[in-house]
Write a structure and sequence with these properties.
The complex is a heterodimer of chains A (310) and B (358). With 310 residues, chain A is mostly helical. In chain A, 69% of the residues lie in helices and 0% in strands. Chain B is of the alpha/beta class and 358 residues long. The radius of gyration of chain B is 21 Å and the shape is globular. The chains are: A mainly alpha (310), B alpha/beta (358). At the A-B interface, helix 1, helix 4, helix 11 and helix 12 of A face strand 7, helix 7 and helix 8 of B.
Chain lengths: 310, 358
């Protein structure tokens, strides 16, 4: 097949990069939702991660500390959500939306002094020269560490939810919090842990935008990626590997369509522009419709408020 | 002149009741922005205009603004809210606010609206725009000289006349100084999405482009070019001088302040009228930022000479002979494009590959 001036190896390498923020945010939100909590504040947590990561990198000079700062900053914001919804029993949908608005606002405030700055670039790993290997090198052995981290997280989440005891407790809490509570598991504690994990992942995703993809701080720079991540969790029917597929499809086709345009392919641009949304939804709907009915269902306690008195 | 008298009476009524009821009430001026004020580009420049209005009028004005308002139905809500809060004059600063502005304006006949870059007016809706294509002619000239791969990349937002004018003007002037030049246009369908803008820049660079122009609002393409190395860019809407001297080698700056101050003054004086305003380099609305030392002296001189010629009204960037993309003649030798032609521009000029999406 003739790719014109598109280099397929570079294309695959850059689609992995482009997909990573959404993948990180979505895998975090998946864990949150599997514990029965609907946190619509992903966009807010991502943008706070983007700004705290950027500030931490500028101040310390270390991208690694930047990512750590991003995870911490977004976790802090997520815990605000946790306190409000789990302890004060506020409505999860309203609180989540509020979290997004709050995150966008506070990030703009925090980032005011940092808008014109540049960070030290965060290098990719090179694996002792393995990155020079043709084809595989640029794809497998020359990515940013956080790209590997995101893939490890997908496997870890899949393994954790499927096989480990705490993972099963988390799922039990998400499916039926009263029963889990009756068995003596801490519903609130489990959910707090899940919410914190979701915050950290969203923060990493945001920082990946401000430190690697763009790389600079600009107000509102997540530009709706948090909402895409939320949608991917639903279309992936709460399965880790489908989240990976969904995020890579979406990010991949986004990059592919830009490359097709840049290479001058005669495909209508309107079609190309809507293709990431269309294809991602289609594929995820098709793969989740084939199985038994249970496979496509949301955790039964999703979004419901829990109080031990109930 | 029935219309005029009607306008004058409503104006007088508005001024008497709302704005200067007790003689001290400040004039309320609202701004609707498509991106955040910290975008470093388009919205940032409009916000500079707001600050200039505050500076010029002090406590005689009260300003308000809303950032990141999506184009479409949500914009109507934002404008309505602003009108209900007592705004006397509202600037809606993006093309996609055109129909919402007209709709909301019809419900608030006493409020004046100013819509940027559109073509629909009403009794209380004026439009204003800047001749960005004049700036494009100059950076197109620089780009034609600077490119070594003879491929210029263009990150385009939406297929509207304002954007197409820019592509055509850049291409014509790059081609004039470098006949081998090709234009790669990528449509991103957004004004502001730093990650997507960065990805578009990367896609262009990976496909062999070494000059990237943008008609989007953030500085992300500049950052992407900086990372890639030997790529030149131009500041868009704002100076983006933090990326000088490389990759940013020059810029087109929008300066809305004179117009905003003039219009606020007009409302205060009761002389505001609907109309279409289209200023450019001669009016100081389009400014060419510093051309850095990376650009050879001869190229810089050529660019500045063109700027001066445009400022003096001696040169129009769309001067014939120019053919349309399909080869049919558009402008004859020496003929200059009319404003109507430019405002309705929906075609590429001859030599640009690809199709404009609908």
């Amino acid at each position: 097949m003739d790719f014109g001036s598109i280099n397929p190896v570079l294309l695959i390498a850059s689609l992995m990069v482009a997909s990573t923020p959404i993948l990180l945010a979505a895998i975090g939100e998946l864990v949150v939702e599997r514990s029965g909590v609907l946190n619509l504040g992903v966009e807010g947590m991502m943008i706070v991660g983007a700004v705290t990561g950027f500030i931490a990198t500028v101040e310390t000079g270390s991208p690694a500390l930047g990512f750590l700062g991003a995870a911490l900053g977004a976790t802090l914001l997520a815990l605000v959500f946790g306190v409000l919804t789990q302890i004060f029993l506020s409505n999860q949908v309203a609180t989540g939306l509020g979290l997004t608005l709050f995150g966008l606002g506070i990030s703009a405030l925090m980032g005011q002094q940092y808008a014109q700055l540049r960070t030290p670039s965060s290098p990719r790993w090179e694996f002792f020269g393995l990155n020079e290997v043709p084809v595989l090198g640029p794809i497998v052995f020359n990515q940013h560490p956080v790209v590997y981290l995101s893939l490890i997280l997908v496997v870890a989440v899949w393994w954790f939810l499927r096989t480990t005891r705490p993972g099963m407790i988390l799922r039990a809490v998400g499916e039926n919090h009263e029963a889990a509570h009756a068995l003596g598991y801490s519903v609130i504690g489990t959910r707090f842990a899940a919410i914190a994990f979701g915050g950290a992942c969203a923060g990493l995703g945001g920082a990946f935008l401000s430190l690697v993809i763009v790389p600079q701080w600009t107000d509102g720079m997540t530009a709706g990626r948090g909402w895409i991540a939320l949608a991917i969790v639903v279309f992936a029917s709460w399965r880790a590997w489908r989240v990976l597929l969904g995020a890579y499809l979406f990010g991949g086709i986004s990059v592919l369509q830009l490359n097709l345009q840049a290479a001058g392919f005669a495909i209508p641009v309107e079609l190309l522009s809507m293709s990431p949304y269309l294809i991602t939804i289609l594929v995820l709907v098709i793969i989740s419709s084939g199985r038994g009915r249970a496979s496509g269902q949301a955790p039964a306690s999703l979004g419901r408020t829990f109080h031990a008195s109930g | 002149m029935k219309k005029r008298t009607f306008l004058a009476t409503t104006l007088a009524a508005t001024l008497a009741t709302a704005a200067f009821g007790d003689g001290h009430e400040p004039l309320k001026v609202g701004f609707i922005y498509v991106g955040p004020i910290g975008d470093g580009g388009w919205t940032y420049q409009h916000h500079q205009g707001l600050l200039a209005v505050e500076e010029a009028f002090g406590d005689k004005v009260e300003t308000m603004f809303q950032e990141s308002v999506p184009e479409g139905a949500d914009a109507e809500r934002a404008m309505t809210q602003m009108a209900l809060q007592g705004a006397d004059l509202i600037f809606t600063t993006s093309f996609g606010y055109m129909d919402p502005t007209i709709n909301v304006a019809s419900q608030f006949p006493d409020v004046k609206f100013e819509h940027a870059t559109g073509y629909k007016t009403a009794e209380n809706v004026a439009t204003y725009d800047a001749r960005f294509y004049e700036g494009r002619a100059i950076i197109g000239t620089i780009a034609g000289h600077m490119t070594e791969t003879n491929q210029i990349g263009y990150i385009a937002s939406f297929p509207i006349p304002e954007v197409i004018q820019g592509i055509n003007s850049s291409y014509l002037h790059a081609k004039k100084v470098n006949p081998d030049v090709e234009m790669n246009v990528v449509w991103v369908y957004t004004w502001f999405d730093p990650a997507k803008e960065a990805e578009a820049a990367k896609a262009l660079i990976e496909n062999g482009v070494d000059v990237v122009m943008q008609h989007t609002d953030s500085t992300a393409p500049q950052a992407a070019a900086a990372e890639a190395g030997n790529v030149y860019t131009f500041g868009q809407a704002s100076d983006m001088s933090e990326f000088a001297p490389m990759p940013r080698i020059a810029s087109i700056i929008d300066d809305w302040s004179p117009y905003y101050i003039e219009r606020v003054q007009a409302v205060m004086d009761g002389t505001w009228e609907s109309g279409r305003h289209w200023g450019g380099i001669p009016e100081g609305e389009v400014v060419i930022g510093e051309i850095t030392d990376v650009v050879p002296e001869s190229v810089r001189a050529e660019a500045l000479a063109m700027r001066d010629a445009i400022a003096a009204g001696e040169y129009h960037p769309f001067t014939g002979p120019i053919n349309k993309q399909d080869g049919t003649p558009w402008l004859a030798e020496g003929e200059v494009a009319s404003d109507e032609d430019l405002l309705g521009m929906t075609f590429y000029v001859e030599g640009i590959e690809g199709e404009i999406p609908n």
